[in-house]
Design a protein that fits this description.
alpha+beta
Length: 411
C-alpha cells in the first residue's frame, strides 16, 4: 500500500488528541455528502420532468420527421422521400400537410394550425390514447371531412366534444385574381365536421392551436395537391434508431432534415437543459463552500500531528511524502462524502419513484402527475461523482501544500 495513503487512512479514522478535529472532519464528510445528495436528487428531478414532457409529445409527434430544408412543402413523389420510406426498418410512413388557417364557430373565431394526415396516423402515434369524447378517431367519411380539435381550442370556440354545426375554415387564396370589391373572394372556405372526439396532449402548443384532419382536406384548402409538409415515420421494434436516422439523413442529403422527437421540440428541451445546467452550477458552488470545512479540518490536523511529522522525518520520510499524507487525507474525506451522498441520493430517488412521497400539489389530479417525477441517468451519477472528487481534490491542494511547507520549516 502507498505509504502516504496508509498513514492518511490511519489519521482519518483514529482518535485525535483534540476532539474538535474529529468533529470538524465529520462535519466535512457530512457537508460533502449533503451537497452530493442534492446534486443527484436535483438532476434526477430535472430528468424526470424532461422524460415526462417527452412522453406527452410521444402521443402526437412522430418518431422521426423528414422536412424540406427550403420552403414549406416538397413533392410527395420525390425519389428521395420514396427511398426513405422504403427502408426495411420503416414500419409506418404518413404524409402530412400543415399550415395556418382561420376557423369560426358561431360568433367565435381563432387562428389555428391545420394538420392534415393520412388515415394511418393512429398507427404512427398514440393519438387514440389522448382522445376524449363519445366518438372515435376518424378523419373522413365519403365526401365529409372531420376535424379533431385540441381540447383548449374547443373550449375557446365553445364547440364541446361534438359541435352541432360544421366548423368554417378560411385560408388565403394562393392563385388567381382576387376581386378587391369582395374581400371574401380572397379566401378559400371549407367545412369540417365533428367525429365526436377531442385530443388532449396536455401541452398548450397543441391543445390550443391544432386541428387534426385528413390530408385530402388540407391539400385542397391550402392548394397543395401532390405536396407534403413533412414525411412522418415510425420504425419497426428493435431497429437501431440512431443508425437508421443517420442512414435517412445520408439519403436526404442537404435537401431534407431528419428530426427525432427531441429535435422536433428543440426549444422546449433546450430550455430544460439550460435550467438543469444552471442548477448544476449553483449546487457545485454550494459544494465548493462545503469543501472549506475540509480545509479547516486539515489545517487543525496538520498542527495536531506536528510531533508525528518529526517522527516520520527521523524514520526517513521525505517532505513530499509527508505532504502527500495530508493531501490523501483531504481526498479521502471528499471521496467518503461523495460515496455517502451518492448512496443517500439514489436511495431518496428510489423512494420517490416507488412511493411518490413528495406531491406536486395538495389535491390529487391537480397536475399531470401527483408526485414529483424522478429519473436517474447513469451519466448524471458519473458527472456528480467526478465533480465532487475534482472540487474536493482541488480545494485542498493549495492549502495543504501551504500549511505543510510552514510546518516542515518549523520542525
Amino acid at each position: 500500500m502507498n505509504f502516504g495513503l496508509y498513514v492518511a487512512r490511519r489519521y482519518l479514522f483514529s482518535k485525535k488528541s483534540t476532539n474538535a478535529i474529529n468533529v470538524i472532519s465529520g462535519i466535512s464528510v457530512v457537508g460533502v455528502a449533503v451537497a452530493t445528495m442534492a446534486l443527484i436528487v436535483t438532476l434526477s428531478v430535472f430528468n424526470g420532468f424532461s422524460d415526462l414532457v417527452a412522453t406527452l409529445f410521444t402521443a402526437f409527434d412522430p418518431q422521426l420527421e423528414v422536412t424540406p430544408v427550403e420552403g414549406k412543402t416538397a413533392p410527395a413523389d420525390d425519389p428521395v422521400l420514396t427511398e426513405i420510406r422504403q427502408l426495411p426498418q420503416v414500419e409506418v410512413a404518413t404524409e402530412c400537410v400543415e399550415d395556418m388557417a382561420l376557423v369560426t364557430y358561431h360568433d367565435r373565431q381563432a387562428m389555428v394550425t391545420i394538420k392534415g394526415v393520412d388515415d394511418n396516423f393512429d398507427q404512427l402515434t398514440h393519438i387514440r390514447e389522448i382522445l376524449c369524447g363519445d366518438g372515435t378517431f376518424e378523419l373522413h367519411a365519403a365526401d365529409l371531412h372531420y376535424g379533431i380539435l385540441g381540447i383548449r381550442l374547443a373550449e375557446q370556440l365553445g364547440t364541446g366534444y361534438r359541435f352541432d354545426e360544421p366548423l368554417q375554415v378560411y385560408t388565403p387564396r394562393r392563385e388567381g385574381q382576387v376581386d378587391i370589391t369582395d374581400p371574401a373572394d380572397g379566401f378559400v372556405q371549407d367545412e369540417l365536421y365533428s367525429p365526436g372526439v377531442l385530443f388532449s396532449v396536455m401541452q398548450a402548443k397543441y391543445d390550443k392551436n391544432y386541428v387534426l384532419t385528413s390530408i385530402g382536406f388540407a391539400r385542397r384548402i391550402f392548394d397543395q395537391q401532390g405536396m407534403l409538409s413533412s414525411l412522418e415515420l415510425r420504425l419497426k421494434p428493435g431497429s437501431d434508431f440512431e443508425a437508421v436516422k443517420r442512414e435517412m439523413q445520408r439519403i436526404a442529403g442537404s435537401k431534407y432534415t431528419v428530426k427525432d422527437r427531441y429535435e422536433q421540440q428543440d426549444d422546449t428541451f433546450r430550455i430544460m437543459k439550460v435550467e438543469k445546467f444552471i442548477a448544476y452550477i449553483f449546487l457545485t458552488f454550494i459544494l465548493v463552500v462545503a469543501c472549506f470545512n475540509i480545509i479547516g479540518s486539515l489545517s487543525m490536523l496538520i498542527i495536531d500531528k506536528r510531533d508525528d511529522v518529526v517522527t516520520l522525518r527521523n524514520l526517513g520520510a521525505s517532505d513530499k511524502q509527508i505532504t502527500q499524507i495530508f493531501l490523501f487525507e483531504g481526498r479521502m474525506i471528499s471521496a467518503l462524502g461523495a460515496v455517502i451522498g451518492l448512496v443517500v441520493g439514489l436511495l431518496l430517488c428510489w423512494i420517490q419513484q416507488t412511493f411518490g412521497v413528495i406531491a406536486l400539489g395538495s389535491s390529487a389530479g391537480s397536475f399531470i402527475v401527483d408526485a414529483y417525477p424522478v429519473s436517474v441517468h447513469l451519466w448524471d451519477v458519473v458527472l456528480v461523482f467526478v465533480t465532487v472528487l475534482a472540487v474536493g481534490f482541488l480545494s485542498v491542494w493549495y492549502p495543504v501544500r501551504y500549511f505543510s511547507r510552514r510546518l516542515l520549516k518549523s520542525v
